[in-house]
């Protein structure tokens, strides 16, 4: 069991890939491996505490992993040492957005500003009408699954006493902006990257079926 943010950071570097919440594979998420007192709890007065949730920003501040919706549309961490292969493979299956498309426009706006919280990016891209929030979130999720967008940090509103509250907002950026262009370059072929990552997943997840691994990684259409 993980008892601290430092232990979580160490575990992410050891395992390489780790969804934040339930992944559909028993034991394969940060939520599954943290001690009970680090999980979500609601107090009688209506307040809540969730140490794991608060650790996300600290993990990213450590500077050794990427965070985003990479696992079947669910958020999680990827150690930087695995990112070039992961990026290589995902981008081979999800080419750069077509010029003039909505995804291309979102990326252009984000790149021009370097980083933006989700709601600011949504408004800047013109998604301001009724039901536009969920539609925009769908585009952002696809761009994260394609390794074009990652989360740099989390921004929290503050009350009149300067205390942070709420669930926080994702501060979005591109991996190239966050860690440089070289962070997304890979010396392997896409076939080699796929083999390396699939072998690694089978090693760390002996309890998972091939279908579960394929769904989680997004490497197969089956």
Number of distinct helices: 10
What percentage of the residues does DSSP assign to strands (E)?
15-25%
Order of helices and strands: HEHEEHEEHHEHHEEHHH
* Rg computed from alpha carbons, rounded to a whole number of angstroms: 18 Å
Q: State the share of residues found in helices, binned by percent.
A: 40-55%
Largest β-sheet summary: 3 strands, antiparallel
Question: Mean pLDDT, rounded to whole units?
Answer: 93
| Tally of DSSP β-strands | 8
> Uncertain spans, ≥5 residues at pLDDT below 50?
none
Task: Give the N-to-C terminal Cα separation.
Answer: 33 Å
Q: Which structural class fits the helix and strand makeup? A: alpha+beta
Overview of the structural elements:
With 222 residues, this protein is an alpha+beta fold. It contains 10 helices and 8 strands. It has a 3-stranded antiparallel beta sheet with strand order 1-5-4. A 3-stranded antiparallel beta sheet has the order 6-8-7. A hairpin with a 2-residue loop joins strand 4 and strand 5. Helix 4 packs across helix 9. It starts with a helix and ends in a 5-residue tail after the last helix. The mean pLDDT is 93.
